[in-house]
Amino acid sequence: MKVLVPVKRVVDHNVKIRVRNDGSGVDLANVKMAMNPFDEIAVEEAVRLKEAGIATEIVVVSIGPAQAQDVLRNALAIGADRAILVRTETPPEPLAVAKLLKRIAERESPELILLGKQAIDDDANQTGQMLSALLGWSQATFASHIAVADGAAVVTREVDGGLQVIRARLPAVISVDLRLNEPRYASLPNIMKAKKKPLEDLAAESLGVDIGPRLTVVATEEPTVRQAGVRVGSAAELAGKLKEAAGVF
Question: Is the pTM here over 0.90, yes or no?
Fold first, then answer.
């Protein structure tokens, strides 16, 4: 079984985001970038499926600038077999990403697509659902446990009321949640081996997909600074402060 794992290059989750002075977006100059944490979990799950003898090949794909090769090499060091970079300097929106991934899926013919439930830069949580709709495949989201057997994936997914278990017929698109696994660290020997693994570079235009933006970012602002609290001496004073804040007199 071939597994396709899309991964995204994002600002490292330990980095404090800075907004450009003109409010036109996030300042990425000299900022550490890394693989989206949810996608890292998807790569780990694919590697575990291969170690269990269920998956035979793992192909990772990233859509972004040439620098995204770094996250692909990291995925190869974790255990993926091949990598594909769909190169574009314009950050694509979720629908454009889903359309590009559909082209890659049609070319690679995987039986399973594993990806993070969302990217930590835009928190859109849309690509997996859009991709399954475009392909006409089964889908399962927010997976916290996956078992593949007999041409189907039994997925335990997290919902507001607890856990839900569903059976998705393969081929399927599954988006993963944080509690699915704990990704491993790539060892130095595997990092060296990853440099020799195949990495294909494709221009996004070659896939015949319109990736032009459909949304315009008007402005980007820092979150409002939280105001300091006020110490009160009694419940009556607290009630008065709350009424004052709510405009009740």
Answer: no
